[in-house]
Amino acid sequence: MNSSPLPPPLSIDNDHFISGDSTGRRRRRRRHKHHHTVYKNPFHSIQSTLDNICTQLSDKLSSQYYNGAQSVLPPPHILLPSVLSGTLAFYATSFSSQYIQYKLLKMSTGTRPAIIPISVGVATVAMGSWMGHLAGLGTAAAAARYTALSSSSLDGTSSWMMLWNRTKQTDFIEQCHSLLEEKIVPMKDAACRTVHEMIRPMTIDNINNKINRRVQQERKEAWFHAARICIIGIITYKTIFRSNFMSLSPSSYTARGSFATKGIPIPTSSLSSSSRSSSIIPSSFNYATKSQRDILHKIGTRYGCHTCGSRLLFHRKQRLLPTAQKKIIFHGDHIPPVSVAKQINNRWYNRKLGRTVAQRFYPQCTNCSNKQGGLLSRAVNAGHGNLHAVGGGSDSYFHGWRMRMGHLTGGLVAAMSTATTTTTVVGGGGSSEEKEEEAAVALVQSSRDRIRSIQYWMEDLLRDAKRTICNVWDGR
Q1: Does the reported pTM lie above 0.90?
Q2: Burial of 82 by CB count in 10 Å (0-12 exposed, 13-18 middle, 19+ buried)?
Q3: From CA 355, how far away is CA 33, in angstroms rounded?
Q4: Residues 6+ apart with CB under 8 A from 158
Q5: Which tens digit of pLDDT belongs to each residue from 112-133?
């Protein structure tokens, strides 16, 4: 009898030697378990995705425009002070410009032609962007100097412990004097040196063409850099922060104010016949309907009075009062006011052409409404020939102290134009002043390279957009 070899014993595996239905459940359970094991933190994948995008964008810009020498944004210990100093510099420039318009030029948002306050606003934004850039550059130099001084000493804990022990033994005045000499004065010198290096080529005089070609090229590059900064600031102010150039002028009481954003068109039927026949009808809350008052209240609580910008935060508690006890918070202000509109419509060329001025409702607080009514009443009684100019000039509202969203333009420009370098100012060969001068030159050059790279990036975007539009137009 032929004996055949016995087959190998069956290897029973609990994962495979089970029924088909159980197999599907086991596999689904295993995948489900594996899914929860890998994605324990739901924000991990989102954060990793954002990090990858930022890394790829940084690598692309660094390799394409920065030559791999810089990152897209400076480190946080330089970024935050630069943004803050740039914002404050832009705010100071805006305040100075508005004060000059208010006191010397007698300008306001109602100045005609409107191109005058708009042009002054554009110039203010350009100058504020340049000042914000210089402030951010100086702050970056001071921060880099502080980092270099800190790294040249012992580690942070030991240095702070030494400083703490020193405060127990020395007087407070001596401690402040030591801090001033060791930290603050070198930081101030580094900031001033960097700012001076930035503006030095712009002050070179070309008298009888006695400067050489290298100096001429340096001066040309400095002025082109300033022009790039101003253009970037103007684009940022208008597109990113959605601000109006005329809002940098004092608010006129008889024209659209500096804080005006949204208004409600006034139909002709909303003015009664008695209103059209009267000599003067000051703007009143009664002109707006109930639905218009509700819309104006929402606009006013969000954007504020179009003249002074006040949101009347302390008056919102009146919502809890009964309807009979509620007071008017925001009036519906006619822009232009009724008396101004009547005077404009009665001019001979408007009567010949049959034109009438269009009016809109804007929210206005009670104080500004009373001021407007008083100005127009006195002007009409005195027979003023141009009521539109009554609320401007020295009678306009000065709002230079109020912070605006557009003031962040200086901080954003400072962040975009601030770069870090690997140049050190402590240690190594050479004198200390030579190293500090080299650090200032390197920081200025890196800032110019960064702004130039932003220009190239914008040119590439416009070129791609033009190519896409042409392809769509040609039907490709």
Answers
A1: no
A2: buried
A3: 76
A4: none
A5: 999 999 999 999 999 999 999 9
Burial class of residue 182 in the structure, from the number of CB atoms within 10 Å of its CB (0-12 exposed, 13-18 middle, 19+ buried): exposed
**189, HSE (Cβ side, Cα atoms, 13 Å):** 16
Place of tokens 């110019």: 448
Name residue, tokens 């709002």: 399
Establish whether the linkage from the previous residue to 336 is cis, with ω within 30° of 0.
Answer: yes
Distances (CA, A) of 395 to 99, 260, 331: 13, 18, 20
Q: What is the DSSP string of 301-346?
A: HHH--TTT----GGGGGGGGS-GGG----SEEEEES-HHHHHHHHT
Nearest of 233, 248, 202, 260 to residue 414 by alpha carbon: 233
Query: How much of the chain is helix, strand and coil, in % rounded to 5?
Result: 65, 5, 30
Give the 3-state secondary structure of residue 423. coil
Question: At residue 68, what is the residue type?
Answer: G
> What mean pLDDT value characterizes the chain?
78
Determine whether 268 is exposed, middle or buried from the number of CB atoms within 10 Å of its CB (0-12, 13-18, 19+).
exposed
pLDDT, residue 407, reads 96
- Which is it for the CA torsion 430, 433, 435, 437, positive or negative? negative
CB 428 within 8 A of CB 126: no
Q: Write the CB contacts of 121 (distance below 8 Å, at least 6 apart in sequence).
A: 244, 245, 246, 247, 248, 249
pLDDT tens for 95-116 read 999 999 999 999 999 999 999 9
Task: Tell me how long the chain is.
Answer: 476
Name the DSSP class of 239: I
Task: Check residue 377 and give its pLDDT.
Answer: 94
331-335: strand order across its sheet? 264-265, 360-364, 331-335
Concatenated DSSP letters of 136-170: HHHHHHHHHHHHHHHHHSS-HHHHHHHHHHHHHHS
Contact between 341 and 357 under an 8 Å Cβ cutoff? The reply is yes
Between CA 425 and CA 422 the distance in angstroms is 10
For residue 19, give the amino acid letter. S
pLDDT at 312 (0 to 100): 79
